[in-house]
Specification:
Elements: E1 3-14, H1 16-19, H2 26-29, E2 48-52, E3 66-70, H3 78-84, E4 88-96, E5 112-114, E6 117-124, H4 128-136, H5 141-146, H6 152-164, H7 169-186, E7 194-200, E8 205-209, E9 222-226, E10 228-233, E11 237-241, E12 249-253, E13 265-266, E14 271-275, E15 281-287, H8 305-309, E16 329-330, E17 333-334
Parallel strand pairs: 15-16, 15-17
Antiparallel strand pairs: 1-4, 1-12, 2-3, 2-4, 5-6, 6-7, 7-8, 8-14, 9-12, 9-13, 10-11, 14-15
Helix pairs in contact: 4-6, 4-7, 6-7
């Protein structure tokens, strides 16, 4: 069971305020989770990665993100602490890993990048060995050789790249999920796939909370937005503040980074979040065979046991999801 966090802001954040200083940062969650608890693998100690974009474009450096990964536990990596104190970025991806597929190696640490695109995944593709060969047939030689690891996640990124060559980010993500569904259905997968994918081109962000089931909840995913994200009390207690209607900061995370319930809203299952370059956040239903309409009797009846047993969801449902009358814009996309 893995987890990730995304930051996008109108001003760059010092990485330490996102990754190391908050008392419930993603690094602390890796060994002291309060919401998600995987009893099979109670800690995320199988490596980590952080990727970021430069504050200002530099022709010599290019537009691709910089990525730092390690197979050591994130909480025990002194180089990560040093880097977070000296780096600022307006767009950050961070991921901590507990191995479910693939070996312990740098090649298998999220996030990955291809050109200016950066990608990471939380979840798992059901019975991936049975569909791996077929997935590879979608790929050009360049994309086939791009994959250096042996996780379902990096192969999913390669599949996404094969769609992105002719589509925008959002449509490429829709087609990636549809192709994976088609392949797992063809082999009669015995359990659902959890596909919390996120991708960015350095300006826009796409993040999905998705499961190919009509009856189960997907792995948890939350967002928070406001004007400042800062420490309000000693001991790493942070909160999101809103001093006006502007959204200067957007955070997306597998588990909230603060203990302030009002700071966070739960993204609905089988929805996509789109963050635009102008800091608009859109929540988009992914309309396919696994989407349940609000008017359907099945709506609101998804079970939590599947995702909770794998450590992707709390076994308690004491936080309300985003209501249908959300302040974020909502659009529908059909597969």
């Amino acid at each position: 069971m893995c987890r990730f966090v995304i930051y996008k802001g109108t001003s760059p954040v010092q990485l330490s305020h996102l990754l190391t200083r908050p008392c419930h940062s993603i690094i602390n969650q890796a060994f002291d989770s309060r919401l998600r608890l995987d009893h099979r693998r109670p800690i995320n100690g199988d490596g980590f990665g952080v990727g970021w974009y430069d504050c200002m474009h530099d022709e010599e450096l290019g537009c691709q993100p910089c990525i730092f990964t390690s197979v050591t536990p994130a909480w025990n990596n002194v180089n990560l602490v040093r880097l977070t104190e000296k780096i600022k970025s307006p767009l950050v991806f961070a991921h901590v890993r507990a191995t479910t597929a693939g070996s312990l190696s740098l090649d298998n640490c999220h996030p990955w990048h291809f050109g200016k695109l950066m990608f990471m995944h939380n979840g798992g593709i059901a019975e991936f060995p049975k569909i791996k060969r077929r997935l590879q047939t979608y790929l050009s030689d360049e994309l086939f050789n791009f994959v250096t690891g042996n996780t379902d996640s990096q192969w999913a990124f390669a599949l996404f790249l094969s769609k992105f060559s002719t589509q925008e980010l959002r449509q490429a993500m829709i087609e990636t999920i549809a192709s994976i569904n088609e392949m797992t259905e063809a082999v009669n997968a015995t359990e659902p796939s959890l596909m919390n994918f996120c991708v960015t081109d350095g300006e826009s962000i796409i993040a999905t909370r998705y499961i190919n089931s009509r009856h189960d909840e997907a792995a948890s995913l939350w967002f928070s937005s406001g004007t400042t994200f800062s420490e309000y009390a000693d001991g790493g207690h942070y909160k999101m503040s809103k001093t006006d209607k502007r959204e200067n900061i957007i955070l997306i995370a597998s588990e909230p980074l603060t203990f302030e319930k009002a700071d966070w809203m739960e993204i609905r299952t089988n929805h996509m979040v789109v963050v635009t370059p102008k800091m608009n956040l859109l929540q988009v239903p992914i309309i396919d065979n696994y989407y349940v309409q609000p008017s359907d009797p099945e709506y609101g009846g998804r079970g939590i046991d599947f995702a909770a047993a794998k450590g992707f969801l709390s076994s308690r449902r004491d936080v309300n999801p985003i209501p249908e009358t959300t302040p974020t814009e909502t659009h529908s996309i059909a597969l």
